[in-house]
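Objective 1b: paired records.
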Amino acid sequence: MLAGMLNVNQAQDTGTQFNNVTVTDSIFRNNAIKGLYIEKLSDSVFTNVQILNNGRYAPPTTLASTTLASFHAGGMDLNLKDGSYSNLTFNNLTVTGNGIGTKEGAGIMIKARGTGSDTGYSTYPATLTGVNITGGTFTDNERGIRFGEPTKNNTGPTNVAISGATIRDNIKQYTGIDGSTYGDVVNTSTVLVDAASNWWGTSVKSTIQANATGSVDFTPYYTDSGLTTFSDVKQLLNFTVPNQVGSSTIDEINHTINISVLAGTDVKVLVPTITINGSSISPISGTSTNFTSPVTYTVSSYDEETTQNYIVTVTTPIKKSGIRNTSSNITYVAGDNGKIEGVLEQRIASGRTGSEVVAIPDSGHTFVNWSDGLTTPSRSDLSPDVDITITAYFSNDVGQEVGGEIEPVTVETPTTPTPTGGEGEVSVPGSVSVVSDVFLRNLELGDEGEDVKLLQKFLNDNHFTVARGGAGAPGEETTYFGKRTQNALVRFQDVHADVILVPLGLKKGTGYFGTSTRDYVNSLLKK
C-alpha cells in the first residue's frame, strides 16, 4: 500500500475532515511511502500506536516521484492545509525505521502549510495550535520528529510540547547530499518547540544540541534511560570523612553540611568521600583538604548550565581541661514500624567495640537504614568518644504517596472553570486558603487553589523551576496544578528522596503532593 491511513483534500475542499478521531492500539507497518498521510485533522488522540518501517528507500519506479511527495516518505505526515486546526495528542507512540534512505524522510512530520515562504499554499494556508507528544519511542528513522515544511519557514505549529519520550539514533541513511537538516527533533518552523524532559540516549549536552535542530528547547533533559534524573540536578548526596561521628547533616535549603569527628582528629588533612548527583564537584572527592575553617564545594549540573555551592563545616568535641574522656554512650532508637534487639543504651570504653544490635521491621514493613547511613540491619560500634544517638528507620505504611495507587484527600471546593490553552499552567480563581504559609491538604495534577500557587513559588524559590517563562515561571505563579508543576515536584522529591521517598519504599518521585512531601515542605517553611 502507498499509505496505511489517507486523507487528501484539494484546496478549498470543505468535504472530508478528520475531527475527534481516536486511534488506539493500532499498527501502521511496511507501507510503501507513508504509514499515515492526513491533510485535515483536529481534536484527535493517538494512543499506543506503532508506526514501523514505512517509506523505506525509494518507491517503485512505476510511481511518479511526486506521488504523496514520496521524497518525504516516512511514518506519519500531517500535511495540514486550508483551515484552522488544534489539539492533537500523541501518547506512547512507537515510531521506528521510517523514511530510511529517502531525501526528506522522517518518523513524524507535522506541518501547517501556506505560511512563511510557503507560497504554494499561501492562498489556502493552515494554522495548527496545541500539539502534545507524551512518552513513546522515536528511534532509527531517517529523521525523528520534524515540524514545518523544510526551507519554508512556516509560522506554525504553535504550542508544541514533547515530554517523557525516548528520542535517539535517528541518523541519515540517504546517500545524496541535497537533503534538509537531520536530527532527532528538527524544527524548520519559526516557533519554539518545547522538548524538555526527554531522554536523548546521552547525558552529554553538546550531543543532544547537535540533534535538536532549529528552535528547540530541550533542557532540562533526562540523563538516564529510566527517566529518573534531570540534567539540571546539582545535588551533593553524601559527604563523609575519616573518624566521622554519626551521619553528615546536609541542609538542602541553606546548602550547608555539618560533620563531627572524633577528638584528636587532624582536620587539616582530611580526605572526604563525596557522592553527587550532577556532572562534577570541585574540589573533587578524595582530595586532602584543610577543614580548620568551613570549605565551599561546588556541584555542577549535568547540563553544566548551573552550579550549587555547599559549605562544609567539620567540628571536633571540646575537651574539658585536665579530664580524659575514657568512655562514651551510644543510644539506639527504633523509628516507627520496627524495633531493635540488643542493648539499647551502651557505655563503651574508648577504643573498645560495643555489643551487637539488630533492627527488625514490623510485619509488612522493611528496614531502610540507620541515621548515620549504614544500611545493614545489624551493627556493633566502636566507641565514638562522644555521646551519640543512632536511629533505625523503617518503611512507612503501604498506601501513602504511591503514584497512581493513592486515594487523595477530598476537599470541598467551589466550582471553577476548566483551564484552557497555554502550556498547561494557567491562572484560575482560588478555592483554598493557606494559613501561615503551611499546606493543609494534598495536591495533585488538575487541582486548583492558592495553595497551588504557593507550592509553585516554593519550588521556584528553591531552584526547582516550574517554567522558564510564562505561566508558572518565577513571579508568574498560578493557582493551577499542571504538568509542569508536577514535573518540578518530581525533581524536588527525587532530590529529597531520603526524607520523602525512601521511608515509603519508593525510588522515584511521583509528582503527587501527598502526606510525606507535604509534611516535609511544611517543616521547611516553619524554619
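Objective 1b, second protein:
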Amino acid sequence: MSNPDIVAIVINDYANKNFLRGEKRDNQGNNIIFYPNKEEIKNLNKSFIVVTKPVIRGNETIGSVTIYYADTMLNRSLNTLLLEIFGLALLLIGISVIVLFLSIQRVILFPLFTLEKSIKEIGDNKSFSVKIPVTSSDEIGTLAKIFNNMTDQLQVSYLNLEQKVSEKTVELTTNVTELEHTKQAMLNLLEDLQQEKGKIEFEKTKDDALLGSIGDSIIAADVHGKIILMNHAGEGFFNQKMGDSLGRNLTEIIPLVDERGKTVMQEKRPALQAMKTKNKITTSAFSVLKKDGTKIPVTITASPILFNDELTGVITIFHDIRKEKDVDRMKTEFISLASHQLRTPLTAMKWFLEMLLGGEIGELTIGQKEIINNINESNERMIELVNALLNVSRIESGRIIISPEPTDPRELLNTIKTELKGKFEEKKQKLIINIPDDLPKINLDRKLIREVYLNLLTNAIKYSPEESTISVTLSKKDDKLVSQVKDSGYGIPEKDKNKVFTKFYRGDNIIKKVTDGTGLGLYLIKAIIDSSEGKIWYESHEKEGTTFWFTLPISGMKPKEGEISIN
C-alpha cells in the first residue's frame, strides 16, 4: 500500500467471511502493513473516511471492498477541491465573459456594424439594394426588417426621383435652349426696335416737316373729341397755340355754323360722323365762326383713325374756300348774267319758230318743216340749259325763295305724271306710283319739289329701255318722308359714283346712247334737298338700273326769304 492516505483495506468475502490485511500508518507517518480484523479497526483511535464498493459477479454480490482514508486526506482534498472549484469558477467566469462578449458582438454589435456599413454604402454609393440579414426576431431583427423596407422604399423613391430629375433636366435643358433662343430673339428684336426707333424718329421729323408745310389746317382728336395734334397752319387759322389746345374739345376750339348761320350740333359735325360711320366725310356746307364774328367757308374732310379695325381717333382737315367761293360767286353771276342775256333771244326765237310751224307766215314744205322742227328742238334744249343754269346760279347764290304750303304728295305726283305722259307713251314705258293712304299733306315748296321729281323721272325715262317699268314709292319713316324712284336703265358705272351729284356730270356709258342732256339735273336736285334739310342717295348697277332715295322732314320745309324763284 503506497498511498499514505489509505489506512486499511478490508475485503469482505460473503462466502468465507475472511478479512484481508492491508497497510497501516503509524503516528509518525510510517507505513505499517497489517491485516487487522473488524475489532482492530474499531479500536484505532482515528477518524476515517470510509468508501465501500460492492463486488458483483454476474447478477450476484459476492463481497465488498472497504477503503479507510485518513481525515487529513479529506482536508487536503477539500482545499484542493476549493482551489479547483475557485479556478474552475474563474475559468467559467472568463469563458462566460468571452461568450457574453461574443454573443453581444454577434447579437447586437454585428447587426449594428452591418447597419452602419449598409448606411455608409447607401450614403457613399447610393446603393439602395443593400440588405441587412434578419437573423433574429428581437428588436435588432425588427430594426433590420424596417431598415430593409426603408431601403426598398428609398430605392423606389430614388428611382422616381431620378426619373423626375431626368425629366426636369431635359425640360430645363429645353427651357435653357429656348431661353437662349428667346434671348437671341430679344436681342434681335431690340436691334430691330432700335432701327425702327430710328426710322420712326426720321418719319416723325419728316411728318412734322410735312405737316408744317401743308397750308390747310389739320387737327387730330381722340375718340372723345379731345385734340391731340394741331399743325402750324391750324394754329394760325384758329388763332390757337397747340399747347393751349391739347386736351380740349373740338367744339371749344372750332365753332361751326351752317349756311343759315346756326351753330352746328355736335352730332352733325363731320368729325363725329366720321367716327360714327368709320368712313371719310367731306362737306363744304359749314363755315368756321371766328371770335370777331367772321364766317370763313371751309371744306371739311374728316377721316377716322383705325387700328386693327378699332377706332382710335379722327383727323380733320379744314380747307379755306373763300377764294373758291369768290370764284364760284363770280362764275355764278356770269352764268346768271349770260343766261339772262341768252334767254331773251332764245325766247324770241321760240315764238318765231312756233309762228312758222303754225303756218301764220305761210305754208311750209315738208322739207322746210323738218328743218324748222330741228331748229325748234335745238332751241328748246338751249332754253332748258339756260333755265338749268339760272336755277343753279339762283340756288348757289342763296337768293332762292322757299315758300312751303300744305301739299298732297299724291296730287303732286299725278300732276307730274300727266305732264310727262307724252314721254312715257313715246317709249311705251309704264309708271307705277305707290303712296300710303294715310300719308298726310306736308308743307312743301311745290316748285322746288316738283323740280326734284321731274328731274328724277325725266332721267329714268331717258336712260331706261322701251317698254320698261318705272316706279315711285313714298313712305314714312320716323320723322322723315322717304321718296324712292326706281328704273331698270343703263345704271351708273362704279368709277363714276363719286361724280353723280357734281355739275355737268354724264356717265360714259350713256353719252353715246343719249346725246342730249345738261348734266345739271342731279346737281340741282341735291342742292334743293340739302337746302330743305333732307338727304339724297342712290344704288346702281350697270345694265340693271338705278334707285334714288331722298328724304324730307315730315314736319315740312322751312320758309326762307329770298329774291327769286326757280323756273
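The chain has three domains: 1-124, 214-320, 401-567. Residues 1-124 form one domain.
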